[in-house]
């Protein structure tokens, strides 16, 4: 993390404690969103396969008549 702050300071941007905290929170938020989206794709696909395989257990049977 210190390397990132040093690189930003090298660009001529003054790094205050508040800006440093905002950068850290931004990285955490970005990472959380990326992990959230990846898990949604993986988990939803797994649940979809299981739901389709067991749909006869929880969907009403319209063909019984």
Automatic annotation (TrEMBL):
Entry keyword Membrane? yes
The entry's keywords: Membrane, Transmembrane, Transmembrane helix
Q: What parts of the sequence cross the membrane?
A: 20-39
Instruction: Please state what the protein is called.
Output: Putative transport
